[in-house]
Amino acid sequence: MINNIWFVIKEKKAEFIRVLIWEMIHGVFVSAPLGIVMVIIWELFKEFPNYQVIWSVVAMMTVMLLVQFYFASKSMVKSNEFSFELSNWLRLKIGNHLQRMSMGYFKKRDPGDIASVVLQDVSNFENIFAHAIPNIASAIFGTFTLSIFLFWFDWRLAICLIVAIPLVYPLIWISNYLVNKFGQKHVKARNKTGSSFLEYVQGIRHLKAFGQTGARFKSLDQALLELKKQSIKVEAIPGPIVLTASVVFEIFFLLSIALGLYYFQGGSLDLQVWIAFLILGYALYQPLKVLTVEYVILRYMNVSLSRIRELLESPIQNDESKPLPTSFPIEFKNVHFGYDERSVLNDISFTASQNTMTALVGASGSGKTTICSLLARFWDVDKGQITIGGIDIRSISMDHFYQLFSEVFQDVYLFDDSIYNNVKVGKPNATDKEVEKVLNKAQCMEFISKLPEGWHTKVGESGSKLSGGQKQRISIARAMLKDAPIVLLDEATASLDPENEIYIQRAIQELIKTKTVVVIAHKLATIQEADQILALKEGKIAERGTHEELLNQRGYYAKLWNTQQNASGWKFNGQNEKSKV
Ligand SMILES: Nc1ncnc2c1ncn2[C@@H]1O[C@H](COP(=O)(O)OP(=O)(O)OP(=O)(O)O)[C@@H](O)[C@H]1O
């Protein structure tokens, strides 16, 4: 557990130790007045009490109480500030780490689970530093201070009280085991509920359409029931442990009373010392009870710490800073790649010269998207190499790497913000003039002028207030503003009506001027002008050349072309029959 804490906060150790020192001092000042008050009892038991001494002790205690108040408020503020700052810092650290991980990680791990680490586990982590550790530090030092007084008064009775502490250890061991076991199950149930909710809410439109809301709700209901069951179990663990620990402490307190009586009757213990033990002995166990509860909580939080650590230890993509490319031809050299065990790309080699257009075509599943994903480093190649300007893309730092690309995908992602701000994502310091220019070039002004607030109109979540074609044009404007030397286009016009398609084709022509372009196109008619066309078949390049060259080969590409030409004659006339237009 300590290992996990140290690992997660390694850059913040010094601050943590400073906060801990405040807590320790606080713990000492909570217990010290109790020991000092015994001096009054001592004095009162004397035949001629010195009231001067008693007044001095009262004055001293007043000062100590003020100091205690000062340290209590200081340590509370400091530990809260530190924990909030720490959780904020940790979320950024995780975000930064996630950014540098390959897409493979996100495909394998449930996004709801990742969100749960960032939100729930980091909240638990915050509680460790805001409550658990401060309480534990203060309890340990409080107990330590009282123990010093007890040993000073009478070591025999002090040992009798202290001996209870190691006896509670087996309980701690059991709690470790139980909390680990049930804590993991609880976290699993919590994640499952989160994911089920997410899936339910995201898919509610489709569930309604297919009349499946009831069936899906059942699985959500089951997840909630499981969470309830695991929550009860995890909540129930501290109860018996804390209770048993309390019983052990009470027993040893009673034993110390009996032992004190025995020594008192035997004449080896003064009455005032015995009274001191009756008071301080009881007080000694109070912080220890707090300690037991907090320790069990801390063990549970350790499940969260392990999850945070596991995420932070997941490998990131190598991004050593080597020389940056100064020209932008792309080269695939004998690239092999598979998502899992199954090979998807086999020995892919091609060069896309600077400022030329390379089109990827082929049947569904032939590997077109995978080639673009490897080029954009969503994944890294298994074998072979991809270079830009002669430099292996794995050795370009991620920050620089993403500046090399503009991507226009079919699946456009827009932020729930204004059109203006969505476009400015491409270049945050762009002037209004630049934004206007790209919106014009991307054929957006025509529909923006009809919106109530022009380019300040909010687009809704994921651009829900705009049509597919409008969203795509905005994403093209964003890519234009970024003005990156390489453009990746993925089926940008696949599902558009003819009018939108014309607008988008115009916008794309503007975007790709003087760029190195790699385009995935299902509509072969749109890439007839490409400098080279790679026809992919089952993860291999079956043919390559210009449109004319490939048609003349009368091979795979020519077949695809002919099929599409024929398919363009499909007409829906009510009975799904084929007829030439
Ligand atoms: N994330 C993934 N995990 C596992 N397999 C995948 C993943 N993405 C794609 N595949 C598989 O890799 C193969 C190539 O897929 P890819 O998406 O590159 O094909 P594509 O030519 O772009 O297809 P489409 O034209 O339908 O988009 C397919 O068999 C697909 O099932």
Automatic annotation (TrEMBL):
GO terms for cellular component: membrane. It is a multi-pass membrane protein. GO terms for molecular function: ABC-type transporter activity; ATP binding; ATP hydrolysis activity; ATPase-coupled lipid transmembrane transporter activity. The chain crosses the membrane at residues 20-41, 53-72, 128-149, 155-179, 241-265, 271-298. Keywords: ATP-binding, Membrane, Nucleotide-binding, Transmembrane, Transmembrane helix, Transport. Residues 330-563 form the ABC transporter domain. It is found in: Membrane. Its main location: membrane. Coiled coil: none annotated. SMART domains: AAA (SM00382). Pfam families: ABC_membrane, ABC_tran. Residues 50-292 form the ABC transmembrane type-1 domain. This is ABC transporter ATP-binding protein.
